[in-house]
Amino acid sequence: MELLCSCAEIIASFVESVLILSTIIAASSPKYPIKKSVLLTVLCATLSTLYLMFMNALSAFSFLTPIGTMLFSIFIVGKLISDGNILLRSTSCVLALFVIQSIDYILIIGLTLLHGSPRELFYGYLEPGLMRIIYLTVDKSSDIILYCWLRKYITKLSELRRGSIAKLLICTTLSYIVMQYLFAMVLHGDFIQLQGAAMVSLFILLCFLLILAFSMITVTVSEKEKATNQMLANLNQNMEINYYILNESITSNAKAMHDFHHHLSVIDALAKKEDSGPVTEYIHSVLSASLIPEPLCQSGNNIIDAVINAKLSEAKQKKIDVSYIVCVEDLSSFEQADICAILSNQLENAFEASEKIENGREVQIDIRQQEGFVLFNVTNRVAADPFMNNKNLASTKPDSTVVHGFGLKNIQDIAEKYNGSLKNEYAEGFFISTVLICSPTI
C-alpha cells in the first residue's frame, strides 16, 4: 500500500506539472513543432516532479514548494518551450497553479463535509492511504477535464493587452494568497462550519477569477473582431476604387486601340492610293497581329464590369480560360464595395487554385439576379479536393507581409450582412463557390 501511495503522489505531481507547463505553452504558443514540444514538456514535467518530491521531503520548507515551482516554470521551462514574454508566462503559470490548488482544496473540503465527519476524516484525505489515492484520482481527473474544456480560452490570453495581462496577474496572485490563507484557517479551525465557509469562499474566488479572465478575453476578442471588420471594410472600399480606376484604364486602352485601328485603316487607304506597296504590307501585318480587339464585359453594373475586365486581363497572362454570364438589373440596394469584395475574393481564390494546375486552367463566372436576390457562382478546375487536407480552406499564400487569409471571412461576413449564405463545395474536379445575398429592401 505504501508503494502504491507513493506512486499515486508521484503521478499526481507529474500531472500537475504537465498541466501547468501545457497552460504556459497554450497561452504563449509553443516554440517548437508539436512532437518536440510534447517531448520537452514531458522532460521538464519530470524534472519539476523530482523537485516537488525533494521539497515535500523537507517538510520544514514546504512553504517554498509552490514558489520554486512557479519560478522554475516561468523563468526556465517557460522560456525554453514557449515564445511568450515573461508577463504572459507568469500570468498563465500563476493562473494554472491557482485553479489546480483551488480544485484540490474544494474537493478535499467538500468530500469531508459530504461524509459529515469531523477533522479526523479531513486529515484522512491528506495522509497516505486508500482514501488519499481515491481523492487524487478524482482530483487530477477533474484538473485534466477542466484544462481540456478551458484550453480554447487559454490560447486567447496572448490577445489581451499588456495592461490587462498585468491586472489579471495581480488579481490571480492576490487570489492565490487569499486561497492559501483560507485553507490555513481550515487546517487550524475548530468547527465544520468554518470548513464549509472556506469551501464556499474558495468556490466564489475561483468563479470570480475565471469570470474576470473570460471577460477580459471576450472584450479583447470583440475589439479585435471589430478592428478586423473595419480593416476589411476599408480594404473593400479601396478595392472598389482600384477596380474602377483599372477598368477606366482598360476601357480607355480599348477605345484607343479602336481609334488607332481606324487611323491605320485611313493610312492604308492613302498608301494604296499612292501605290506604296511596302507601307500597305506593314499596315496589314500590324492590323492582323496586334490590333485584335479584346472583348470586355458590359453587364450594366460598373463594379462587376470592372472586376471581370481586370481579371480577364490577368487571366490572359496566367493562361486561364475565363467564361462569364452576367444577368443583373439593379444592384443599387447593395453597397458596391460589398459586390466588389464578394466577386473579387471569389475570383482571387479561383485564380490562386488555377495557378497550381499545369494544363486545363478554367474559371466560370455566373452572376444572376432574380427580384431581390443575387447569386454569385464561380467555378474553377482544381488538381485535387481542397477539403482533403485543408478543411477550413486557409490561405496557402507564402507571403506573410501581405494581408492574407481574410478572403473567405470577408465573403462570409458580407453574405451574413445581407441575410445570405456562402457555400463552398467540390465536385468532379471542380471547386464551386456560391454566394447568395438578399436585398435589404425585401
UniProtKB/TrEMBL annotation:
- For whether the record's keyword set contains Transmembrane helix, the answer is yes
Q: Which residues form the signal peptide?
A: none
Q: What domain of life is recorded for the organism?
A: Bacteria
Task: Give an example GO molecular function.
Answer: ATP binding
What are the alphabetically sorted keywords of the record? ATP-binding, Membrane, Nucleotide-binding, Transmembrane, Transmembrane helix
Q: Which Pfam families does the protein's record reference?
A: HATPase_c_5
Query: Protein name, please?
Result: ATP-binding protein
Species: Acutalibacter muris
